[in-house]
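Hi everyone, sorry if this is the wrong subforum. Our group has a chain we'd like a structural model of before ordering constructs, and none of us has done structure prediction before. Sequence below.
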Amino acid sequence: MRIFAALALAPTVAAASLALETPAPGVYVHYGRHDVTTIDNRGDIANLGFIVGSRCVAVIDTGGSAAVGAALRAAIRRVTDKPVCYVINTHVHPDHVFGNAAFVDDRPQFVGHARMPEALARRGPHYLNALRRDLGTAADGTELVAPTLTVVGETRLDLGDRALTLRAWPTAHTDHDLTVFDEASATLFLGDLVFEGHLPVVDGNLRGMLAAIEELKRMPARLAIPGHGRAVRWPEVMDAQQRYLQRLLIEVKQAIAAKRTLAQAVETVGGDERDRWRLFDVFHRRNVAAAYAELEWDE
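Answer:
Right subforum, don't worry. Here is the predicted structure as tokens:
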């Protein structure tokens, strides 16, 4: 399975139009659907964005297929002819990275958490096979593109009269989450550290996600873009997620203390949350299982 270097050739993919919003000057966001990847949406299910400086453009996540990435690139070109100098991935999940291939010809730096290359090498082939299975020819052109610049701690990127602060997080939603803070507008791109409307997904560490929320609250953002869902008030955007995750933590601990099996916990923990979240039936049982596997070692 190929993992493209930054100078590989990008595929030619027909680009559908992507709707953009401008929540702050020079900041553009496309809101993905609350859905799983289908032929109809081609993986347009995560929030994507870009920030325009005086010198160049930084892209933040690129969508769930090369077709979505090409549509994002075309949307950028409708806004500016400045070059794309950075393509930043908040984490390796396919709905955030599979549009990367559409930007390879721009020769940007592809940026990710220091642990993202290992995660891409380990998970990427499986993700790519699943996309090709689910989308068929609609997945054409989608390939794995590895970071050429990785972040440990914090890194500052200059777009020309505009600086971005990238922060690598300890294990939370994944073990390689990255946030992007635009200093000019105080806009914070959260990736999947925060979900709004869409059920939060625990793929890394439940306690890590709760710890990240407490740390995120201290960041001086005026506007925050979650990985899924609308931008809403900061830091209130995290309240519903924090409540759900805290409940998950408490109830899974109680199930383990009561000697319930994993199968029993999956059937009993948090089922009445269903009406509060989109995609509850897709992800909640997985969250319970992930939390159980994490917390059973505490007993």
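For your construct planning: The two ends are 41 Å apart (CA to CA). Confidence is low (pLDDT under 50) at residues 1-15.
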